[in-house]
Amino acid sequence: MKQIKYSELNEYKESRIYPIYKDQDICNEIIEKLGFDLNTIVNKEYNQITQIHTLGKLPFPSILFIGLGDSKEITTMKLRKAFETVSKKIKEPMNFIVKQACTDEINIHQITRLFIESHMISQYQEHVIGHDFKNIVDVQMISDEDIQKDIDEAIAYGEGINYARRLADTPSNLMTPVHLVEEAKALADEYGMECTILDKKALEEMKAGGILSVNLGSHIPAYMICLKYTNADTPYTAVIGKGLTFDSGGYNLKGNSLGMKYDMCGGADVLGVMKTLGALKAKANVYGIIPTTENLVSGKAYKPQDVITTLSGKTVEIISTDAEGRLILCDAITYAQQLGATQLIDLATLTGACVSALGDIYTGVFSNNDEYYQEFDKAMKESDEKGWRLPIDEEYFAKLKSHSADFKNSVGKAGAGASVAANFLEAFVEEGTKWIHLDIAGTADNDGTAATGAMVRSVVNMVKE
Questions:
Q1: CA 376 to mean position of chain CA atoms
Q2: Which end of the chain is more exposed for a tag (fewer CB within 10 A), N or C?
């Protein structure tokens, strides 16, 4: 995807994408050449598409109009949705008339980034194993104002989000912890990042009992992946993602494990974030940390009422082996702080309770610092991603009181499960460390199919200068 100028249009014979507001008239030159007032037949209502064939009267075969409604009511989020709608119709290369979508509030640089990102996300298709990957159809951006930098930046975001989606969409027999490690190594090589892989032996030497306990039921060893991106003079932020490549629930066996290949979406998102930062050459210092394992049943698997010792030294009584995500995350949170990170963001498909509370529209957001939360809330708004702050409270943590350990990993019954899980994680965050927890259980995939790359854009915008 690249910029083309109006003076170069004669070299391009592809059909045009023409965004149009209700309070706009279609270009007179097009109307005159087609010999018909298109304003009377093109549907300019929001998110409506009208295709007009030029019948040889113009040097390109057709115009795909996308209605944007009232220009005074348009928002960047509404533009994303409209651009995704029109992109789904694109089957062959086309040219997009950028300035037609601009308003007094939304400039040509924003429109360029919005369209390219939306187009790439909309065109993505889950890979059918045994068949070729589906390529994203090329769209050139028509503008005399220089927008190539905007195109390149938007491609970086789009590729980062789609990379996270591809990893999470891959079947769990083809995306094991070993495969995830290889992906991280390849990404580090591509962008010149430092890469540290803590294998089972290293985790045992560290006494990382959280992730090691969850891993007991699997014949595939656990790993702690750590990528280090350095390109600023600021303290390091750690972005941590739950990398459960498959979750059976363990001895608290799930009634239906369909969709559990997506329990690694947090980890996939971390690699998507790191890829985006690398492609942007962003000013940031970031650790990307992924604890990765499977949670399976075997004669060696951990059991309810076991007591484990985490990397922090805190002991945890196991109430539910299906509350495993917090056990691998707590070790990753401790490890991040050992590395010196003073700001933490974790992403995890952590609780069904968050899905019950917020559905698939909003991500659950928790934080131990109001100022840090406000920064992230601003990043979400800039990114057109929806999150809703949910409470953490010492009274929730009190519900995890144990008689045989420092605390339990679960209450074992329904009631504010997302907040209880967040309070569990907060117990591993040291005083003075700023922390945000993103429960993406409802937003990470489309009801067990097709990963979304939820919160990749917001996290990138949060951590980069």
A1: 14
A2: C
The type of residue at 125 is: Q
Q: How far apart are the first and last CA of the chain?
A: 26
Q: Which of 111, 146, 181 is the last residue in one of the domains?
A: 146
Q: Which long-range contacts (CB under 8 A, 24 or more apart) does 451-454 make?
A: 451/164, 451/165, 451/166, 451/167, 451/168, 451/169, 451/262, 451/265, 451/268, 452/165, 453/121, 453/160, 453/161, 453/162, 453/164, 453/165, 453/268, 453/269, 453/272, 454/265, 454/269, 454/347, 454/363, 454/385
Q: Which residues, 6 or more positions from 349, have their beta carbon under 8 angstroms from its beta carbon?
A: 242, 244, 262, 263, 265, 266, 325, 439, 440, 441, 444
Write out pLDDT tens, residues 408-420: 999 998 999 999 9
201 & 292 share domain: yes
Whichever domain contains 127, its CATH number is 3.40.220.10
254 is catalytic: yes
Q: What angle do CA 231, 233, 235 make, to 5 degrees?
A: 100
Q: What is the CATH number of the domain that holds 440?
A: 3.40.630.10
**Could you say which of 128, 146, 164 is where a domain stops?**
146
Do 141 and 207 reside in the same domain of the chain? no
What does the pLDDT look like over 367-381, one tens digit per residue? 999 999 999 999 999
Q: Is the dihedral of CA 322, 219, 170, 117 positive or negative?
A: positive
Q: Which domain holds residue 290?
A: 172-463
Whether 44 is catalytic is: no
Torsion region of 413: left, alpha or beta (phi above 0 gives left; psi -120 to 50 gives alpha): beta
Percent of the chain with pLDDT over 70: 100
pLDDT greater than 90 at residue 449: no
Number of folded domains that form the chain: 2
Q: How far is CA 261 from the centre of its chain?
A: 16
DSSP 42-57: S--STT-EEEEE-TTS
CA distance 357 to 354: 5
Q: Which of 166, 228, 242, 326 is catalytic?
A: 326
Residues in Cβ contact with 133 at an 8 Å cutoff, skipping those fewer than 6 apart:
127
